[in-house]
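Example record

The entry below shows one chain as it appears in the dataset: sequence first, then structure tokens.
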Amino acid sequence: MNALPPLRDLTVALAGPGRVGTSLARWAVAAGARLVAVGTSPSGRGGELARELGAEAVPAGELASAGLGLLLVAVPDPALPAV
């Protein structure tokens, strides 16, 4: 079985730092990607993950995908239109 290629040249941001988003972000970083930003909720959710993985905590409404290799969107389906 072939292994997936490393993600070392991939820059990633995360919208939705819940359980699924956090797991995906940690997986990407473990595979070599660089997490550059985590969109935080008004309650500040996501800030701890950003600090842990060396990313910037950004208010979710200000999260931008320009210049990124991947924007992970891990929000509940009803929240997608707002994202």
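Notes for this example: The longest helix spans residues 19-30. The CA atoms of residues 15 and 73 lie 5 Å apart.
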